[in-house]
Write a structure and sequence with these properties.
Blueprint lengths: L7 H17 L5 E7 L2 E10 L2 E4 L1 H11 L11 H22 L2 H31 L20 E5 L2 E7 L1 H21 L10 H14 L29 E5 L4 E4 L2 H9 L8 E7 L8 E3 L4 E4 L11 E4 L5 H8 L2 E3 L1 H5 L1
Antiparallel strand pairs: 1-2, 1-5, 2-3, 4-5, 6-7, 6-8, 8-9, 10-11, 10-12
Helix pairs in contact: 1-3, 1-5, 3-4, 4-5, 5-6
């Protein structure tokens, strides 16, 4: 018995996928942002299907000092073939619509998912090679130090904060993947149960939610290794440490409340960009970090914090009175400090 063809909704989604992939040819797919005090406006590396754009020359100049290879489009075979791979998928999805066979749709979805996985593995390999294969005669050499940018998310590289994320073309690429999964959902599982097109946005929402979820948990503050993002001093006493995590997932570490407040008040970060602020529990032997909004704060000159902020965070409400008495301090709140 001859199998039924594709549904009209599946064909429509496949046509939309083809159009979206054509648009990607002209848009940045990925971007790496670099932030540092000497570059307050930030530096950006944009990855297109046919090459690199953005502040490539400046980044190459900086890479020279630490021994990284300079970036040139001709060194990447990916830029020679990526446009043709995208055009292949455009042709394949149009062919699926014209031939009207679910088996061909299945092949297309498998190939597209496999391509996405291989592309991310290749991107990681590229970052690893550039971050680890360093010139031993470089002007700046730190034993054991590598400069591999994050695959996705934020990573501190010396005094630069590196942030890696899909650009508009990359998000469209993910959207194409969501639509293909929706086609699979329609054709192979719940075709008879779908009564409305409104189920498709729900599928997309669930998939996007699972892909976009990122942790906002703070990293441990390491004494003698981590550097304060404001004063640039190495953290010497973690019990006064703090961290700011942005809505993008960037992590900024500090050695003193003075530095946290100065960082915010000097507009080095806008309040709307802050996801959460964590402070070290002064009484915790393991330097546990607690949310600033949940912490009880003590201010006293006798605390002698590294940068004279002289403010300690307490997680245990039962010990606040004792500590105020011990250090002859006063109680303050986080909201009071950031006003």
């Amino acid at each position: 018995m001859k199998s039924a063809g594709l549904s009209k909704l599946t064909k429509l989604l496949l046509i939309i996928c083809s159009i979206c992939l054509l648009i990607i040819l002209f848009l940045p797919i990925w971007r790496i942002e670099l932030d540092a005090p000497q570059y307050p406006e930030g530096l950006q590396l944009n990855i297109y299907a046919d090459g690199l754009r953005g502040n490539v020359d400046i980044i190459n100049g900086l890479n020279h000092y630490i021994g990284m290879k300079t970036l040139h489009n001709q060194d990447f075979i990916e830029f020679s073939v990526l446009r043709y791979i995208i055009l292949f998928f455009v042709s394949l999805f149009v062919a699926v619509v014209l031939i009207n066979k679910r088996s061909l749709l299945n092949i297309g979805i498998i190939l597209f998912v496999a391509f996405g996985i291989i592309a991310m593995i290749d991107f990681w390999r590229w970052e690893y090679n550039y971050g680890h294969n360093l010139n031993p005669d470089a002007a700046i050499r730190i034993p054991g130090m590598a400069y591999q940018p994050p695959l996705i998310g934020f990573k501190q590289l010396l005094n630069f904060g590196a942030y890696s994320i899909p650009d508009i073309g990359g998000w469209i690429f993910i959207g194409v993947g969501v639509m293909l999964l929706s086609c699979f959902y329609i054709e192979f599982k719940y075709l008879k149960k779908i009564k409305s097109i409104y189920s498709i946005p729900m599928i997309a929402f669930i998939v996007m939610l699972s892909m976009s979820g990122c942790s906002t948990k703070p990293d441990a503050i390491i004494v003698g290794k981590d550097q304060c993002c404001f004063c640039k001093m190495t953290v010497s006493d973690a019990k006064f440490g703090a961290e700011i995590i942005t809505v993008k997932g960037k992590n900024f570490k500090f050695d003193d409340m003075h530095c946290v407040l100065a960082f915010i008040k000097n507009k080095q970060i806008e309040l709307k960009e802050i996801k959460e602020v964590y402070l070290t529990d002064f009484e915790s032997t393991g330097h546990e970090l607690i949310k600033a909004t949940d912490a009880l704060l003590i201010q006293s000159e006798k605390l002698n914090s590294p940068m004279n902020g002289n403010i300690a965070a307490i997680g245990d409400k039962g010990s606040i009175a004792k500590l105020i008495n011990t250090y002859q301090g006063t109680s303050v709140s986080w909201n009071q400090l950031i006003k």
